[in-house]
Specification:
By secondary structure, this protein is mainly beta. The chain has a single domain, classed as monomeric porin ompg (Porin, Beta Barrel). The longest helix is centred in the N-terminal third of the chain and has 25 residues.
């Protein structure tokens, strides 16, 4: 078996084991909670105005191309305030011994308005986690969200929720970027996601992401997504920029 197939097999094995472990843990929750659906705090890349409840605890793991993993922890430290951190690890899955751990990044989100009949819920936050880290330049080729404000509102039909906002990724140039997204949840079992991210500035190209979120249990979600649909270009460091498939798992509990 060649190296590529070995990495793929190992990736699938770890993903399956993680799914089964999380599923076993959440299956033990009380039967009366079976109709609960935990609010989505993010879609694929973009944030939403949803937050964890006070004492809520979110564990999220993303698997992406070439054996990379991003793990994150988020806590509901106050009634409207979430704090968290993430770690980007390259070539974690597979036979390579050249594992690269990137510095931890922080996440903060404060929901300052719950919305009304005509107005969206609003949240202000910060997320430093980027993608495609270049160790020579010591920066992400796709910058983190940075400082952002986001609104979320159900509109048009039940369970169809729109999200949109503005963000400043880099305080050196102070460019303001925009992002929009939507998700439609079918019978609290599966959600279909669309995102148009990072627009307004052509020197840092926009991207389209699509995906499906499966609510395996009220507390465990599995995402299958395609980032940067149709992308075929290069980053500023000469690295290839192309579409990538990701698998993302989220488990919510309380502490």
């Amino acid at each position: 078996m060649n190296t590529g197939l070995k990495k793929t097999a190992r990736f699938l094995q770890i993903a399956l084991i993680t799914v089964l472990m999380c599923h076993s843990a959440v299956y033990a929750e009380k039967q009366e909670d079976k109709d609960i659906v935990v609010p989505d705090t993010s879609l694929i890349d973009i944030p939403t105005a949803g937050i964890l409840d006070y004492y809520g605890f979110l564990i999220k793991t993303r698997f992406f191309n070439e054996g990379g993993v991003v793990g994150s922890l988020n806590f509901g430290v106050m009634e409207r305030l979430n704090l968290g951190a993430s770690m980007h690890v390259e070539q974690f899955i597979g036979s390579s011994s050249d594992i690269k751990m990137v510095r931890p990044e922080i996440q903060v989100k404060f929901r300052f308005f719950d919305g009304g009949y005509y107005t969206p819920a609003l949240a202000l936050g910060y997320n430093g986690q980027g993608c495609f880290y270049d160790k020579n330049q010591k920066k992400y080729m796709e910058k983190g969200r940075g400082l952002f404000v986001v609104g979320s509102k159900e509109f048009g039909m039940p369970n169809l929720v729109f999200h949109g906002g503005l963000n400043v990724s880099d305080f050196d140039d102070n460019y303001i970027f925009g992002f929009i997204g939507m998700n439609y949840t079918l019978e609290d079992q599966v959600s279909f996601i669309f995102e148009y991210d990072n627009f307004f500035h052509s020197n840092d190209p926009s991207r389209v992401n699509i995906g499906t979120r499966f609510y395996i249990t009220p507390y465990f979600q599995l995402d299958l997504a395609l980032r940067e649909v149709g992308k075929d270009s290069f980053f500023s460091n000469g690295a290839k920029r192309k579409s990538e498939r990701i698998v993302q798992m989220s488990y919510v509990t309380s502490f």
